[in-house]
Specification:
By secondary structure, this protein is mainly beta. The protein has four domains: 59 residues, Nucleic acid-binding proteins (OB fold (Dihydrolipoamide Acetyltransferase, E2P)), CATH 2.40.50.140; 60 residues, Beta Barrel (OB fold (Dihydrolipoamide Acetyltransferase, E2P)), CATH 2.40.50; 69 residues, Beta Barrel (OB fold (Dihydrolipoamide Acetyltransferase, E2P)); 67 residues, Arc Repressor Mutant, subunit A (Orthogonal Bundle), CATH 1.10.10. 14% of the residues lie in helices and 38% in strands. The strands form four sheets. Strands 3-2-1-4-5 form a five-stranded antiparallel β-sheet, with no helix packed on it. It has a five-stranded antiparallel β-sheet with strand order 8-7-6-9-10, with no helix packed on it. It has a five-stranded mixed beta barrel with strand order 11-12-13-15-14. A hairpin with a 3-residue loop joins strand 6 and strand 7. It starts with 5 loop residues before the first strand and ends with a strand. 26% of the residues are buried. The model has no long low-confidence stretch (mean pLDDT 89).
Length: 277
């Protein structure tokens, strides 16, 4: 019998509290209980039934006809329903919530959070969740360059950028140079596919191509000026770090947006500041 997967078993015995299932009628040792409330009407010894196997709160093997939100080795976005002394518990569609140990959390989660997790078997053959989903994500996405996708950031690396689970299951990366603002783990993002790598992983960009992004950046810069009493302490001679701190843009992107507003006669420019006209 396989925990964490759907499988077809045979009814071998009926009891007051349910029926016992096994791989065949001849099996005498490895039987699992299907509780009475889940037994279909008319099920008889020898009949086959598809079930999902896991362990109950007392660590006993149990079968269910309910469909969980993920199978062994798969990923899914699940909601945190509670946090205990050993970890968090997630709603995965079954009566017993799915355990997410503290050691498998990449950030501390709280009740109400939605997290991307994979399902694995621990050393005691118990099904658990892990937020370390990189090796479980699929590289067989249907997407191509320039497609728009949505996903959740599940890890941020100071060296590489933000790792994203597109559609909760496809492997993707927003390169460090493409990161803007202050993205955080568990943020949902919409991005553009820049490239599909040979291994199937996706390279993403949050921002549009330069000629399209310039309009958006110009509007954002104008709004930022209005919020700061019409003046910003950045200009053509400001450092890239200072410009990014104030605007979230690279220096080139800032200069394009600044140039657009200047041509439209909406701002005045100086080496170290810009102001509304």
């Amino acid at each position: 019998m396989l925990f964490g997967q759907k499988q077809t078993l045979v009814m071998v015995k009926k009891v007051d509290f349910g029926v016992y299932l096994a791989e065949s009628l001849k099996e005498k040792e490895n039987k699992v209980l299907l509780p009475a409330k889940q037994v279909p009407q008319g099920l008889c010894p020898g009949d086959e039934i598809e079930v999902f196997l896991y362990k109950d709160s007392q660590d006993r093997p149990i079968a269910t006809t309910n469909a969980p939100k993920l199978m062994l080795g798969e990923t899914a976005r699940l909601r945190v329903v509670s946090v205990g002394k050993m970890g968090a518990f997630l709603d995965w569609g079954l009566e017993k919530d799915l355990f997410l140990p503290f050691r498998e959390q990449t950030i501390k989660v709280k009740e109400g959070d939605e997290v991307i997790v994979a399902l694995y078997l621990d050393k005691s053959s118990r099904l658990c969740a892990t937020m370390r989903v990189y090796p479980y994500l699929s590289t067989q996405s249907p997407y191509q360059a320039e497609d728009e996708v949505t996903g959740m950031i599940y890890e941020i690396s100071s060296n590489f950028g933000a790792f994203v689970a597109v559609d909760d299951k496809y492997s993707a990366l927003i390169a460090k140079k493409e990161l803007y603002g202050k993205p955080e783990v568990l943020d949902m993002i919409t991005a553009r596919v820049v490239k599909v790598k040979e291994d199937g992983k996706l390279d993403l960009a949050i921002r549009q191509k330069a000629h399209l992004q310039m309009n958006t950046d110009a509007e954002a810069l104008l709004e930022l000026l209005e919020k700061n009493n019409g003046t910003l302490p950045i200009g053509d001679k400001s450092s890239p770090e200072k410009i990014r701190k104030w605007t979230g843009m690279s220096k080139n992107e800032f200069k394009r947006a600044e140039g657009r507003l200047y041509k439209e006669r909406k701002i005045t420019v100086a080496p170290e500041f810009i102001s509304l006209m």
